[in-house]
């Protein structure tokens, strides 16, 4: 959410930003906010005047009564009553305008960074850098479900019976591999100096609207019937919500946190072979990293966060690349975002395995996350988040890049301690 002062003083900048994001339908919101804000300030000013006058007259009534000026006192009382009636009406209007302004402010997108490339959608994202050689082996790499089934590691048919499409049973070596990757990711981030958390897996609606846009919420979140609770789509939601309505000491920043959680999401792709198997699912697990910092430090932490993911994947012998998200691909709260994509030897292309985002003060402004500074006064913090790893999708990249011609799977050295010293997984079917 933007500072309303920016809309008051530089509405053209806000409109130009909307155009950069190809959301011209939202341009009218800027003018509506300006008009409502003008009316709000007029209403508030009148309310303040009425309160001041009412208080002054109320004090004077006591003096009139003491002097026996009953007629004048009764007239003053009538005047106070009329003021109270008008004040009640204006306060209701003030509350209504506040709600309408906030409703529109929540939809107006955040100001994107000047470095963000212009483009309508993810097809216009820009490759930044590649890490590792994208190898295509001499043998044909099987589809990931076929690999998992050869290891006796997945059961989709049973999951369809219990839960429907978009769910899975992992078992045996594949289930152990899944858990090992998450454990390794946890320790990887702890060794980077991040504090480990397991957060609540459900959050209230005020936290949901604080951490994400309405469009994202509608497309992603599962609502708990009869409760003011939503299942989280990522632990970032809980972790940023942790700081709601807090004033942080500047000396306590940056807050560098890493969190594990299951994630629940509505959308499941319905087209193409890559939308089957465990590529897009309703439920998965993820290790996340979150930073709360001073505004001037957020560019540094943005770079550190996505580099952490790159390093993690490279320790597991998976080639990756980074993509700068274009303006039209950025969610409304984001200032800047970089996707990390892993190489798929079978598809001979990269696919997304993580996303690093700098949200500026958007989440902090919505949730009331401030930083205490004695000289400058309190200000809103900046928040950032990035995926460390999110299996089972990551398993696709892992299995494809570590498979041998005989179908066995190499276990990279950093992961071997978590796999009980196992160096190779062998086919069982």
The rounded distance between the terminal residues' Cα atoms is 54 Å
Number of helices: 13
CATH topology of the largest domain: the name is: BirA Bifunctional Protein, domain 2
What is the residue-mean pLDDT, rounded to a whole number?
A: 93
Return the domain count: 2
Arrangement of strands in the largest sheet = 1-11-12-13-16-10-9-4
How does the major sheet shape up?
8 strands, mixed
Q: Oligomeric state of the chains?
A: single chain
Helix/strand structural class: alpha+beta
Taking all Cα atoms into account, the compactness measure Rg is: 28 Å
Query: Which percent range fits the helix content?
Result: 40-55%
CATH level-1 class of the largest domain: Alpha Beta
CATH architecture verdict of the largest domain: 2-Layer Sandwich
3D shape: elongated
Can you tell me the residue ranges where pLDDT is under 50 for at least 5 consecutive residues? 268-275
**Strand coverage percent:** 15-25%
At the fourth CATH level, what is the homologous superfamily of the largest domain? Bira Bifunctional Protein, Domain 2
Number of strands: 18
Kindly describe this structure.
- The chain has two domains: 4-105, Helix Hairpins, CATH 1.10.287.40; 122-425, Bira Bifunctional Protein, Domain 2 (BirA Bifunctional Protein, domain 2), CATH 3.30.930.
- The chain has an eight-stranded mixed sheet. The protein has a three-stranded antiparallel sheet with strand order 5-7-6.
- The chain has 429 residues and is an alpha+beta fold.
- It is built from 13 helices and 18 strands.
- Helix 2 runs antiparallel to helix 3.
- The chain has helices at 4-9, 11-20, 27-66, 70-105, 144-150, 156-162, 172-190, 205-211, 214-220, 235-241, 298-315, 362-367, 393-401, and strands spanning 126-131, 154-155, 169-170, 195-197, 202-203, 222-223, 230-231, 246-249, 255-264, 283-293, 320-324, 336-344, 349-358, 369-372, 379-380, 382-389, 409-410, 424-425.
């Amino acid at each position: 959410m933007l500072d309303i002062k920016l809309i008051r003083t530089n509405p053209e900048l806000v409109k130009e930003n909307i155009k950069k994001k190809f959301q011209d339908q939202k341009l009218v919101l800027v003018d509506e906010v300006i008009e409502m804000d003008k009316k709000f300030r007029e209403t508030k000013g009148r309310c303040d005047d009425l309160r001041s006058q009412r208080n002054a007259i109320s004090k004077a009534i006591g003096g009139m009564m003491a002097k026996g000026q009953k007629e004048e006192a009764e007239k003053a009382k009538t005047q106070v009553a009329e003021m109270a009636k008008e004040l009640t009406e204006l306060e209701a209007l003030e509350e209504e305008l506040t709600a309408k302004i906030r409703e529109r402010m929540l939809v107006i997108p955040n100001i994107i960074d000047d470095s963000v490339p212009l483009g309508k959608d993810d097809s216009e994202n820009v490759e930044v850098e590649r890490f590792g050689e994208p190898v295509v082996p001499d043998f044909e790499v099987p589809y990931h479900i076929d690999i998992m089934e050869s290891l006796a590691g997945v059961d989709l048919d049973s999951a369809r019976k219990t839960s429907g499409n978009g769910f899975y049973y992992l078992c045996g070596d594949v289930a152990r591999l899944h858990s090992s990757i998450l454990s390794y990711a946890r320790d990887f981030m702890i060794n980077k100096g991040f504090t480990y958390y397991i957060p609540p897996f459900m959050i209230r609606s005020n936290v949901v609207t604080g951490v994400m846009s309405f469009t994202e919420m509608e497309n992603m979140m599962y609502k708990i019937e009869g409760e003011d609770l939503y299942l989280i789509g990522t632990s970032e939601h809980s972790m940023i919500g942790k700081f709601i309505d807090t004033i942080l000491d500047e000396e306590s920043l940056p807050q560098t946190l890493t969190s594990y959680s299951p994630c629940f999401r509505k959308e499941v792709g319905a087209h193409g072979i890559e939308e089957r198997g465990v590529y897009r699912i309703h439920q998965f697990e993820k290790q996340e990293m979150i930073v709360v910092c001073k505004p001037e430090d957020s560019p540094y932490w943005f770079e550190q966060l996505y580099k952490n993911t790159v390093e993690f994947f490279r320790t597991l012998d998976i080639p990756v690349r980074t993509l700068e998200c274009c303006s039209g691909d950025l969610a409304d709260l984001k200032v800047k975002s970089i996707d990390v994509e892993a190489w798929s030897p079978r598809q001979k292309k990269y696919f997304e395995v993580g996303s690093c985002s700098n949200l500026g003060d958007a989440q902090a402004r919505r949730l009331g996350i401030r930083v205490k500074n004695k000289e400058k006064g309190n200000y809103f913090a900046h928040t950032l988040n990035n995926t460390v790893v999110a299996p089972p999708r990551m398993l696709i990249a892992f299995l494809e890049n570590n498979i041998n011609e005989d179908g066995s799977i190499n276990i990279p050295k950093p992961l071997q301690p978590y796999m009980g010293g196992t160096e190779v997984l062998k086919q069982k079917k």
